[in-house]
Amino acid sequence: MSPLFFYIWVFDRPPLPMFLIVLLYSFWILLMIMDMRITLSIKNLIVLHESNIIFRNLYQKYKPSVAITLQLLIETSFVVLMPSLIFPRDFGTKLFFDYQTSAILAGIVGVIHVLAYLSNRKMVKKIIY
Predict the structure, then answer these.
(1) 51 vs 20, 56, 121, CA distance in Å?
(2) pLDDT (tens digit, 0 to 9) for every residue of the chain, 129 residues total?
(3) What does the H/E/C string look like for 50-79?
């Protein structure tokens, strides 16, 4: 979270180039898919080893397709809306949706998915071998 706060409070929010915004969103989406695929490959161990408490609870209460859909909605809402709700904005001159800060948050969440993917991969290797 420190890169996000550093960007917002220290700098005067310089505009990010569009290619970087697209790259950050793509990074998040790609790694979310990779993390979800490896998590679902060990379906019988999700309840025991999944570090995402929200997904673990959703998976226990609902069938997998509903749990995945709800998790995607929750995470997308978090990435898209959180910067606009938390950080003060001048709504007279700016849009409600702050896509630049949201892109930075998406990149940070993507890093969290990398860590989760590597952890799950290590778990799968322990189980298989």
Answers:
(1) 29, 8, 13
(2) 566 555 555 455 667 788 988 999 999 999 999 988 888 887 777 777 777 888 888 888 998 889 889 999 999 998 888 877 766 665 555 556 678 878 888 988 999 999 988 988 888 777 776
(3) CCCHHHHHHHHHCCHHHHHHHHHHHHHHHH
